[in-house]
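TA notes, week 10

Several of you asked for a full example with nothing omitted. So below is the full record: structure tokens for the whole chain, then the designed sequence directly under it. When grading your own attempts, check the secondary structure regions first.
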């Protein structure tokens, strides 16, 4: 009966170890999250295909060249790719602990015993002697709690996070290059527009001054025109400053010093009627789960899940097999003889005692960090929907406003053509003719800015959906 109870105790203990070990080996449970079936501001289905390299949809060779240059030379992106390579080294380093640890030792020692040394109260020789040793030492931690495997899995999840972080940098880079390029393009057009407005306003001011000197008008139109002229001059200075800042930013994105970067003026090849062809439509909402920041947040959940298992394993005893084999002798002549061979083999059990509270605190912290990572993942998904819906909504509203600006421009153009004809035949006076030319330039200025808004909206949609990441990192 005594042996039966002992056997039952051993079997129960073995079953507990087996079940605990199995639970430590299981993969982390997936994170459940319910997402809307479709976007709140989803567009109507379209038959136009959207290229994954979305910047090519704008049909602008210089933009394509700048994007390629940035992807090759941008230092932030290169740093992100290097982080991937660094993360791979941590994986291989951690995988080394899955194998038995072995070492070879070779030593030659000359020793002089103490005169006061004794063996069983018998004085020993105090003459110096040589001791030659060589052997192989090995140890292997029995993976009952799968601590090493879980540590490797944790590092692999961190590697995946590094890859997604690089994709976030890539998306941001694509977004910045395209936006900055179109801003410079619009600034060039608007600077030219304001310079033309400035010349016209100077002419109007001169005409008003002549009328004032002749007593035809009072001083008010002269002063109002002078104020408007100064406003145009101030706006022109602001736009030129913004152009310089954007050109320097574009040089930075391309990995160049501003002093070595030349931005060539381009002619806009984009047809304004093509906006709807550029916007992805009828997309399933679960595409956002593939966004790099969302995927990184999910990998972070799994990383902390494995870290929790690793910290939990610290609470249990460690079972290790150790052994060594070699030779030891005071003479080289019989160093490798059978009589000089030494070996040992054993099982070590190491259990935490006084540091148990510390290990348990680490385990509790890992559990909390896992729950925090789950909340961070859900927050990333929620933020992805917010950004996408904001981008789609902004595009819809700005596209609706575009027709207003186009109509205003066409109306200003028609009125200007009428007064241009009247001015040529002598019906309209110069100031009236120049005023309607200013109105046309102002309408053109507003239309250019509205087109820039739409381009930025479309780029924002691409960025929110995580489009443009088909190519892998080098």
């Amino acid at each position: 009966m005594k042996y039966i109870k002992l056997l039952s105790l051993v079997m129960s203990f073995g079953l507990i170890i087996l079940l605990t070990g199995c639970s430590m080996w299981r993969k982390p449970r997936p994170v459940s999250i319910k997402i809307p079936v479709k976007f709140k501001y989803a567009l109507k289905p379209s038959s136009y295909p959207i290229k994954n390299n979305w910047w090519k949809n704008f049909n602008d060779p210089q933009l394509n060249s700048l994007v390629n240059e940035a992807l090759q030379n941008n230092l932030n992106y290169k740093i992100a790719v290097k982080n991937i390579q660094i993360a791979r080294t941590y994986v291989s380093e951690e995988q080394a602990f899955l194998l038995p640890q072995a070492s070879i030792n070779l030593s030659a020692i000359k020793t002089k015993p103490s005169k006061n040394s004794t063996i069983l109260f018998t004085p020993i020789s105090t003459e110096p002697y040589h001791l030659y040793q060589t052997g192989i030492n090995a140890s292997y931690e029995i993976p009952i709690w799968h601590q090493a495997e879980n540590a490797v899995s944790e590092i692999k999840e961190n590697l995946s996070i590094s890859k997604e972080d690089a994709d976030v940098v890539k998306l941001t880079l694509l977004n910045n290059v395209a936006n900055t390029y179109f801003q410079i393009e619009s600034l060039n057009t608007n600077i030219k527009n304001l310079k033309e407005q400035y010349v016209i306003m100077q002419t109007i001011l001169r005409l008003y001054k002549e009328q004032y000197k002749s007593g035809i008008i009072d001083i008010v139109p002269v002063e109002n025109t002078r104020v408007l002229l100064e406003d145009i001059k101030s706006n022109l200075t602001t736009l030129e400053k913004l152009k310089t800042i954007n050109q320097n930013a574009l040089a930075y994105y391309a990995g160049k010093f501003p002093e070595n970067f030349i931005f060539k003026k381009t002619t806009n090849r984009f047809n304004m009627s093509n906006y709807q062809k550029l916007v992805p439509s009828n997309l399933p909402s679960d595409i956002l789960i593939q966004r790099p920041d969302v995927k990184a947040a999910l990998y972070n959940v799994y990383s902390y899940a494995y870290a929790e298992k690793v910290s939990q394993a610290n609470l249990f005893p460690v079972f290790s097999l150790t052994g060594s084999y070699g030779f030891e002798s005071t003479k080289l002549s019989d160093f490798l003889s059978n009589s000089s061979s030494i070996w040992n083999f054993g099982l070590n059990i190491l259990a935490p005692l006084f540091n148990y509270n510390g290990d348990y605190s680490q385990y509790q912290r890992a559990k909390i960090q896992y729950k925090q990572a789950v909340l961070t993942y859900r927050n990333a998904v929620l933020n992805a929907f917010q950004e996408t819906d904001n981008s789609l909504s902004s595009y819809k509203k700005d596209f609706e406003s575009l027709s207003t600006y186009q109509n205003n421009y066409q109306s200003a153009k028609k009125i200007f053509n009428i007064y241009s004809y009247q001015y040529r035949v002598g019906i309209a006076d110069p100031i009236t003719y120049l005023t309607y030319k200013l109105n046309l330039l102002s309408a053109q200025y507003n239309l250019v800015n509205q087109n820039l808004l739409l381009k930025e909206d479309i780029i924002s949609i691409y960025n929110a959906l995580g489009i443009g990441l088909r190519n892998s990192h080098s």
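Residues 288 and 465 are 6 Å apart (CA to CA). Use that as a sanity check on your answer.
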